[in-house]
Design goal:
- It is built from 14 helices and 13 strands.
- It is an alpha/beta fold.
- It folds into three domains: 77 residues, Orthogonal Bundle (Arc Repressor Mutant, subunit A), CATH 1.10.10; 135 residues, Nucleotidyltransferase, domain 5, CATH 3.30.420.40; 169 residues, Nucleotidyltransferase, domain 5, CATH 3.30.420.40.
- Strands 6-5-4-7-8 form a five-stranded mixed beta sheet, with helices on both faces. A five-stranded mixed beta sheet has the order 11-10-9-12-13, sandwiched between helices.
- Helix 1 runs antiparallel to helix 4, helix 9 runs antiparallel to helix 11 and helix 10 packs across helix 11.
- It starts with 20 loop residues before the first helix and ends in a 17-residue tail after the last helix.
Length: 432
């Protein structure tokens, strides 16, 4: 049996212990009958479905389906909600997946901000908190802020800690699946020997799964956003740094050591500025937030009547100016789009994805960024690869990465039913 979603892509995750009796029985059944998670996934995907339709769709016998459904009903992940239309016999009882039965925390830890979303089992956000913070330079303060925002978000969502599955954590660093709690000392030198994985686990007694922020942005778009319905897509996050997440065959592609997607360190000008990675002329040195601010300050003397004159220059001011039609703001954005187009064109020629979604700080510019980006790509790509690819802004906005972190938990939970504990049995659960 095959379902559209989910397709597991996470190679590292904790395996929770201390589940309730109902979930323990279900998890035990899944170990000897691999179609148990697949049946749950089909109910999750359809929302409402009958036992007869499950048997028809899966090819399983009705008695087997009824037995598995009995186990699912005991967990309260699935409920009977009435009767459906008769197909010539007795009216079928409709089963419904209980999307609000459990919550998930998704954390977006960027280089200069922290965002926290609480979602249900359908990716719907019930609470969102975000705050600027020098994450890259301040590990201790970041940990305190993350704890504060998680607790505030849970209160706002009215979410009981006992009904949480796990915490998903997105980090602005490559993540090696062999050492998921290790951040790159090149990208995050102040975090050498530090991680939020264990502190989060110890504080909330929940499993923690972690991945790169662009990877999780790609996952969110694949499940809920611009990448829905396609198996090959790319998400590019343009912020303090620049990164990309790649969905290939419906799964996150991480590479051998987790560094796939570092598009920000693609050298587009060998005579360009030196990057933090030690290379010269990386894409991030031209379109990362610090580079765009520096470029604006360089051009400002030539635009004395700009809306940016006599203002504090930051990325929000540049975006606001461009949206208002300011010539300086538009020039900076169009130059950034042209530089980004160099990298995207090469990626299209190499990978031919169906969708490229642009997220991060510049995404709110919409067509002001996407239109010149498409033109830059068109000038540098094979006609066939450009024609086959949609280049669009992220559909999920600023919550994208946090929702992706939550989605990573959901993806794992629908594959491994031991992610569904209930009651108070939280002690001894390992972290990633």
């Amino acid at each position: 049996m095959e379902t559209k979603k989910p397709k597991r892509s996470d190679p590292f995750h904790p395996l929770p212990r201390g589940a309730s009796a109902a979930f323990s029985r279900l998890a035990a059944a899944a170990r000897v009958r691999p179609h148990v998670p697949a049946l749950l996934q089909l109910i999750w995907e359809e929302g409402d479905i009958s036992r007869a339709e499950l048997a028809k769709r899966t090819g399983l016998s009705r008695s087997t389906v009824s037995e598995i459904v009995g186990e699912l009903l005991a967990t309260h992940l699935v409920a009977e909600v009435g009767t459906g239309e008769s197909q010539g016999g007795r009216r079928p009882i409709v089963l419904r997946f209980q999307y609000d039965g459990f919550g998930i925390v998704g954390i977006d830890m960027g280089a200069t901000h922290v965002g926290v979303a609480v979602t249900n089992l359908r990716g719907e956000v019930s609470s969102w908190e975000e705050r600027s913070h020098p994450v890259r330079e301040d590990p201790r303060g970041t940990q305190a802020l993350v704890f504060e925002l998680v607790e505030r978000s849970l209160r706002r969502a009215g979410q009981d800690l006992k009904r949480l599955l796990a915490i998903g954590l997105a980090v602005p660093s490559p993540v090696d699946p062999r050492r998921p709690d290790h951040l790159s000392e090149v990208v995050m030198p102040a975090w050498a020997g530090r991680s939020l994985v264990k502190p989060l686990h110890d504080r909330f007694q929940l499993p923690v799964v972690v991945d790169n922020d662009a990877n999780l942005g790609a996952l969110a778009e694949h499940w809920w956003g611009a990448g829905r319905g396609v198996d090959d897509s790319v998400y590019i996050k343009v912020a303090t740094g620049v990164g990309s997440g790649h969905i290939i065959g419906g799964r996150i592609y991480r590479g051998a050591s987790g560094t796939a997607g570092e598009i920000g360190h693609l050298a587009i000008d060998t005579q360009g500025p030196v990057c933090i990675c030690g290379l010269r002329g990386c894409l991030a040195t031209f379109i990362g937030t610090p580079a765009l601010v520096a470029r604006t300050l360089t051009l400002l003397p030539k635009h004395p009547r700009s809306l940016l004159a006599h203002k504090k220059i930051d990325i929000t001011a540049i975006e606001d100016a461009a949206l208002a039609g300011d010539p300086l703001g538009l020039q900076v954005v169009e130059e950034a789009a042209d530089r980004l187009g160099i990298a995207v064109a090469g990626m299209l020629n190499l990978m031919n994805p169906a969708v490229v979604a642009i997220g991060g700080s510049l995404a709110r510019l919409g067509e002001l960024l996407i239109r010149p980006l498409r033109e830059s790509v068109r000038r540098r790509s094979w006609v066939s690869s450009v024609a086959a690819t949609k280049i669009v802004a992220s559909e999920l906005g600023v919550r994208n990465v946090a929702v992706g972190a939550s989605t990573l938990v959901l993806q794992n939970a629908l594959e491994d039913l031991r992610f569904f504990p209930t009651g108070t049995a939280r002690h001894g659960r390992p972290h990633a």
